[in-house]
Amino acid sequence: MSVISFSSSSPSSVASQSLLSTQTYRSTAIVANEPLDKQGQFNYEAARRYFPAQIIVDMRALTQNMKRLVAETKKYNPQAQVLGVVKADGYGHGLIASALAALAGGATWLGTAKVSEALLLRQAGIGPDRAHILGWMSSALDAPYEELILNNIDLGIGSFDAIHAACQAAQQCHTKARLHIAVDTGFGRNGFTPAEFDQALSLLQDGAQRSLLDIVGLYSHLAVADAPQNQEFVRWTDQQIESFNQFVDRMTAVGLKPQIRHLANTAATFSRPDIHFELVRPGNGFYGYEADPAMGTPADFGLVPAMSLQAQLGTIKTLPAHHAISYGRTYITDQETSIAIVPLGYADGIQRLASGSNELGSLHCDHQGGPVRVMTAQGPRLCTVSGRVCMDQFLIDLHGLASDLQVKEGDTVQLFAPGRGAKYCEPTADDWAESADTINYVIYTCLRNRIPRLYVHAKEVLSENDLQLLDQRSILS
Ligand SMILES: *Cc1c(COP(=O)(O)O)cnc(C)c1O
């Protein structure tokens, strides 16, 4: 899978050597604090040449977050295993790299929602000897069940059609389908309701007796586990757990006792050890974020955000006072000031709701745009999206003159990274989520693949073999 859509010549070629020595950049990688080796430097500069922004993923952070989640899980039940959720292209961090980091951190299962991503993991070379893989969403009529079964992918199943399809495919390919039965304990999404469960059980019994189905697991999903301070929500979760246990009893009663019960997401992995069962399914925590900032900061949970997003400034110019910026004239300069272009827009996945407006603008309301950390002669400065986010770019008011601040075109600025938050001039994905009135998950999963995704500390945490599974041009260190 290629994450970078440019072609690069061999770094050992004479041409690229001379390119390296003659071309210098004003600012280097902000995130890769350690010096890059020659190959890493080449990859970084090549990425910058073809796209003026980079997603930098810290493989050490991912691996350590998984170790943290595994330790938290084992603390209560040494037998319990961890499934690293790598759906949605590893929450935007890259499917394969995230999967490999999860395994390096001690996860023994991987999970995706779309079964296409489960297949991609196997195709990348993550075999059944390395990990169980669970795919939990499919359209019963069209999913490639035979291919999934032959690739040793466990199937999350929650409809009668899906049971039929799994039986049929198992018969065709003479291999049992490994199923995890999804049950609706109150989420109202996937899974059998208590009312339809008897019918599901008889179909499952039938499939098991005909040696077509291996009923491996039972699972459900929690609706409000991310608010452990809210007593009403805790009661809802308690009800979901009670319902889940009733499903377990009903399966056991008909001789289909699930070997692997799983219910906990990131929030419940931390706050509800009573429901770790045989397997937990954390996603967001693995990427370094808590499910809801109300629960605390990532640091409170011993997590480190793995992703940083940076960009190189485009045109910088000085505008007089009372000059409108961007579509809709929602932001008007209050004094003479310099404006810089950040070359990322909503087509890159920057939330348009993170646009910034001020009282002088046409909306007559102050809305703090998404934060950007800019290095100036006076130290780091927090700027915010000024005016509306456009398709490929947005603008920031530097609140001063670029010449005084010594901010220049080509300078690297940071949209988010691990840090203490915007008020310390260390903007995070949580700050962007707040500005866009959304959740941190949206901030990183929506970033588009045209932004090069580059990996640091990959060589430190991955084996030589695993390193080979990544796009070599994406490895910085
Ligand atoms: C996304 C998802 C998870 C992970 O949730 P987080 O809040 O990211 O930990 C777990 N289970 C299912 C079924 C999911 O869809």
Task: Tell me what the structure shows.
- The protein folds into two domains: 4-58 and 306-461, Lyase, Ornithine Decarboxylase, Chain A, domain 1 (Beta Barrel); 59-301, TIM Barrel (Alpha-Beta Barrel), CATH 3.20.20.
- The protein has helices at residues 14-22, 38-50, 59-76, 87-91, 95-104, 115-124, 145-150, 160-173, 197-209, 231-253, 266-271, 402-405, 429-435, 440-445, 458-461, 464-467, and strands spanning 53-58, 81-85, 109-114, 132-137, 153-157, 177-182, 213-219, 260-264, 279-280, 307-312, 316-319, 324-325, 331-332, 337-342, 371-376, 379-384, 394-397, 412-416, 453-456.
- The protein contains 16 helices and 19 strands.
- It is α/β, with parallel strands linked by helices and 477 residues long.
- An eight-stranded parallel beta barrel has the order 2-3-4-5-6-7-8-9, surrounded by six helices.
- Residues 85, 87, 113, 136, 221, 265-266, 281-285, 291 line the site of pyridoxal-5'-phosphate.
- Pyridoxal-5'-phosphate (PLP) binds at residues 85, 87, 113, 136, 221, 265-266, 281-285, 291.
